[in-house]
């Protein structure tokens, strides 16, 4: 018997095939049992008719409980009324394993209850839709850079020093060499890659011991970081807007079904086309003042500030030239105004906040040395990085896009915890 997957059923109409999977739901009406089998690629309704099959097969159908694993054999017919458009006339049912009292039932459950059972929650249709969108975004990210001649240069996860400030480092013992830190960003290594290959990206997990419980923060998240030799801040912003347009338009085209399951209103997403609006930090502060928010020039924006700023635009907005005091040590200062860094943050609409952070990098050895000192960073750990300025330094720029925040925004989710298979947060390390 040919074993097939539900997403391939259109090729098997009229054939007798076997499906294997789990019982999503079932109901019965008189002599008929309806078994909803999910196999990960979709859900198919099997129709078991008493009298048309042996008593044994009806009994097996009745024994199946929610999430029991089983095989279902029968002829596929097209039926526009059936969920998914196909149905199976069941001729055989084989029990693989009966599930006892599956804890997640179709009724409403609290978020902590579900989060504790994340390993099972992933089986539900909403989580399926989110994970498929995530998968599509990851592929779009790779396709975008691979198609433009960027080389993937992976950065290490265990590192000797901080990249994004010392207050959010996860620390671990490293053999006889002292402490190692889980990377906060692959950027410094991507810069070495850019000096070797011109255009590179790294894409992997990053870590922040961030003591914040907001809907935007994870302790472990994925970041894609392009880095390009000879790019300035302007080039960096152009790359970011091309990139965002590509990701969003690809998901709109390929994930229509998933976005429907998530009841995502896609009107704002349709707008994500370049050019994206660009405003300076000072102009953003101006907006806050106009909206009656008491904000002092020089500080970093909080979540609410970002929401207010982004609400003024119908697509993501690029905010550039932040005060260098609130930004990382490696950012180049604007030669026209040394109080600000050649930095850019992209704020997503609809309150999703910062999804991209980037900058032109400090390419002058002496200035960079001063910055490392001013930030109280250990110079020895950065000697290799300083070498990039000693041996053929050039202007260069890059940015990092947070995958989970991007998935949350595109899917229209309340919280980033649903955007990753197994979220790591201040109060959650399991399952
Ligand atoms: O702005 P960040 O800290 O930038 C960097 O790490 C740079 N080194 C990137 C670069 O220039 N190559 O982080 C970049 C993005 C943020 O805009 C956000 O989307 C995401 O990473 N991010 C987080 N996502 C989830 N949870 C957190 N705790 C995050 N912190 C940052
Ligand atoms: Mg940032």
Question: Looking at this structure, what is the CATH superfamily of the largest domain?
Answer: Bira Bifunctional Protein, Domain 2
Radius of gyration (CA) equals: 26 Å
Main pleated sheet = 8 strands, mixed
Which structural class do you get from the secondary structure elements? alpha+beta
Calculate the mean pLDDT score and round it. 97
CATH topology of the largest domain: BirA Bifunctional Protein, domain 2
Which stretches are low in confidence, meaning pLDDT under 50 for 5 or more residues running? none
Total strand segments: 18
Number of domains: 2
CATH architectural designation of the largest domain? 2-Layer Sandwich
Bound molecules: 4-amino-1,4-dioxobutan-2-aminium adenosine-5'-monophosphate, magnesium ion
CATH class designation of the largest domain: Alpha Beta
- N-to-C CA distance: 37 Å
- Percent range for helical residues? 25-40%
Strand order of the largest sheet: 6-10-11-18-17-16-13-12
The proportion of residues in beta strands is: 25-35%
Helix tally equals 13
Shape: elongated
